[in-house]
Amino acid sequence: MADVARVAGVSHQTVSRVLNGAPHVRPDTRERVLAAIRELDYRPNSAARALVTRRSQTLGVVSFGSALYGPASMLDGIEQAARSAGYFVSVASLRSLDSRSVQEAVDRLRDQGVEGIVVIAPQISAVSAVAKVSSAVPLVAVGSGSRSPVPMVAVDNEAGALAATRHLLDLDHETVHHVAGPSGWLETKTREEGWRKALEAAGARVPQVQSGDWSARSGYEAGLRIAEDREVTAVFCANDHMALGLLRAFHEAGRSIPGDISVVGFDDIPEAAYFAPPLTTVRQPFGELGRRALELLVEELAGVGHARSHMLVSPEMVLRRSTGPAVRR
Amino acid sequence: MADVARVAGVSHQTVSRVLNGAPHVRPDTRERVLAAIRELDYRPNSAARALVTRRSQTLGVVSFGSALYGPASMLDGIEQAARSAGYFVSVASLRSLDSRSVQEAVDRLRDQGVEGIVVIAPQISAVSAVAKVSSAVPLVAVGSGSRSPVPMVAVDNEAGALAATRHLLDLDHETVHHVAGPSGWLETKTREEGWRKALEAAGARVPQVQSGDWSARSGYEAGLRIAEDREVTAVFCANDHMALGLLRAFHEAGRSIPGDISVVGFDDIPEAAYFAPPLTTVRQPFGELGRRALELLVEELAGVGHARSHMLVSPEMVLRRSTGPAVRR
DNA sequence: CCTTGTCATGTGATCGCGAACAAATACACT
DNA sequence: AGTGTATTTGTTCGCGATCACATGACAAGG
Hints:
2 copies of one chain form a homodimer.
Chain A: H1 2-8, H2 12-19, H3 27-40, H4 46-53, E1 58-64, H5 69-84, E2 88-94, H6 99-112, E3 116-120, H7 124-132, E4 139-142, E5 152-155, H8 157-170, E6 177-180, H9 186-202, E7 210-211, H10 216-227, E8 234-237, H11 240-252, E9 262-264, E10 281-283, H12 286-301, E11 310-313, E12 316-318
Parallel strand pairs in A: 1-2, 1-3, 3-4, 4-5, 5-11, 6-7, 6-8, 8-9
Antiparallel strand pairs in A: 10-12
Helix pairs in contact in A: 1-2, 1-3, 5-12, 6-7, 8-9, 10-11
The first copy, chain A, binds a DNA duplex through helix 2 and helix 4.
InterPro entries (chains A, B): HTH_LacI, LacI/GalR-like_sensor, Lambda_DNA-bd_dom_sf, Peripla_BP_I
Keywords (chains A, B): DNA-binding, Transcription, Transcription regulation
GO molecular function (chains A, B): DNA binding
């Protein structure tokens, strides 16, 4: 910066003024400074600036399962929104979601000097970990349940699950089976609750829940078990990947879809429309969730306060060919 | 830091020594300092440290299509490796891969003070953009072609495509059709080359190529076109998502797989094993690619030089049920 | 003509840390 | 005891920016 000042024949302060768009700089001196900057290919040192302003221009993202479609999309949305808000994004992805790991990741980011943190933390333990995080920096959770103790943005899983289940009931299915996610996840819980409420509201029997781990493999295994029960005519699956495994298992068991069994998924991953058959599912706007979370965080940073600190986004049902009317026996 | 020094009754330099594990600190003073640090919950200011050491402990990742399985997995691998090497990771995801966007992203990261950059840049234009990037910081590309002008890590796409095609030829198919990726991608090019070479080596006819855009939708559309040609008995598809669309189209056209047509994909996404039927494909170890890229970058930072600056990882074929012997007519 | 206020620019201090050097202390060996 | 060397600690400076304040020039108003 001193070099630039020398070349432009001004003081370092004037260079700083030009850089920060401060008022009270005569147009021609501004030009001279800019010319000097170009000539020297000068780039401000962000560390120095961060040191004195106490602002790093950086936000942190703690993410879990970041290779999965949901988290990856959210991260993408977050980065996009952060950039347009003038922030950098630093990531810390977790291998496990225990309280210690979350705390560690948050600490790491804090040490790096991030101004705020978004936690992509869909697990119950993570939320409580986040809640415990004695963090001086603002923190927003995304994709976690509605009873999160920190500000958060999430899809209304319960409403989505309820709609999915009701869709099947409306097709005259006597009841709807459920393949849930792994225990400990907020999505697992809220989706199961939505399913249960829909059944209860309709006075339908509530069958036993099968549990998976979100993977197609686990859906396949659940499918094999379910296929043994010839009574089953409708299944609501807690995510699309498991639904894929389910379809595979039903196919192998010789059950036609939706002829014998109707299946609904959750997420609407891009491939869902090309499953065999195309999957009826509940769309989660992941990218938008990420963007909204970041907006919330930026608002907190700006000190807007906690005016709208819990944000539930309504998911949307996408009807495809994996669901059909129940066969009356 | 001054506070800590005061509480511990030492100078700030001694605190610094303890923090950096410098030698020549008496055990009991070290203890006093550590105690003071704990008492005050002191955290070093990374901006100040970066300012004086000229090292930000941060690496940048430029990524494209970061919601897709491949890039997301690589990013994940990169982050993991970076963390264990003691670096933070800052991401910049691109919406388009033109030279200007890439340059902008790289500049942004440089301005932030990253010490090195990994570019997840599978597009030809990106590679040339990267090559042009007049960057003072070390730069490594991952997942791009073998003729990249910067150090890079990639799967040997050509070998993978060749193996996939040969697998089909070995099953007695007269020739193998190809659904390629979008033009401009290195993967598209090298996979097509591998396919072509395998055909030529076997003296098989080289059919016209269908092009998609990696999405299941485009695979579906290509599949509809291919299904019209009753001569087709084998298709090598440049990625699994398109293969999924292909399977769907064939199913709708009443062609059985692998009875009428064999299909091979590329990537081995986790769902591929649950397609209908389970997909024979070529596995790319994305996470490992990311890790290796980061290791390469760290080596460059350490000044090990460009000893092994191009690293080709051999992909592995995964045989499943979407391929079978050609039906002799 | 002198005050007063606005613009335009410069000066010095400061952010928190580590590097270089200096000083003090401890230990070893005559 | 005296000298030399190794360990341990402290002092000063500077990294590259912003901030608070000072200064000079000029115009407007009395």
